[in-house]
Amino acid sequence: MKTHHGIILCLAAVIVATTSTISVADDARVKPTVGIIGTGDMGDSLGPRFAELGYSVVYGSRNPDSEKAQNVVKLTGDDARVTTQKEAAQAGDIVVLAVPWPPMETVAQNLGSLDGKIVIDISMPAEQAEDGYLVSLVETSSAEMIQSWNPGARVVKAFATLASYVIDNPDVVGGPVTVPIASDDRAAKERVGKIIAAMGLDPVDAGPLRLSREIEALQRLYMVPLLQRRSAAWEPYFRRSYFWECIWTDDYSDPVGDADDLADMPDTQGPARPCPGT
To answer: What pLDDT score does 247 carry?
Structure first.
């Protein structure tokens, strides 16, 4: 009987261990919640795309009961909901800051603790100068300021240099659209890069978070055709240079500090071509 009892205990342990393993595996397949702060033109485009990828979407709004906010929820799907900005930020494993400047300055400092969360800044801190062209409202960048206000957050600058209609349908412009990504957190950068690729866009590692300044400059450049009221605009596409490595010389410049630990971005443009003459 002792032997039988021991066998039964062993079988029970195996069943428990197996059940536990399955539970962990199932949990690993469950995608996190995305808190989108803002229900405007970019928020209501990114939300449905995240939902399509299987993420649970929670919108944060100043007026959660407004018709506009409720319509965005309906557009996103049955699993989406809207609440206050702070509650949405706290619910999200990934938090997207999709509010304009200058309101961003207040919003980003009143979301509660964002420690450990990936925080994606898509904002454009700019205004029109006297000549109508854009000038920056900040000395550094929006992303760097958000990081300083939330030092425990994993801030990423992304989705900042494209229009909402491209997020809705990347094929609408007839070709690839590049999304530069800047962050001091390699893992966060890689995770956002995979999301961008899954949305049918072209992720590019733009370096550390301070390079958000250049991304925000690109935002202002991106707006030029619209401000000029031209009949055609542009969408950024960083076409791969296949031959740069063919002419590279070691004394051209010093390598960047993280050259041996670069973020691994999804390859959306295929393998490099051989050097000419090889």
So the answer is: 72
- pTM equals 0.86
| Enclosing domain of residue 181 | 100-247
Q: Supply 212's token pair.
A: 């958000």
Positive or negative, the CA dihedral 151, 181, 144, 44 is negative
Q: What is the mean pLDDT of residues 158-172?
A: 95
| SS (HEC) of 239-263 | CCCCCHHHHCCCCCCCCCCCCCCCC
Does a structural domain hold residue 62? no
What is the number of structural domains in the chain?
1
Residue 223 located in a structural domain: yes
Instruction: Tell me how crowded residue 102 is: count the other CB atoms within 10 A of its CB.
Output: 12
| Burial status of residue 246 (CB atoms within 10 A of its CB: 0-12, 13-18, 19 or more) | middle
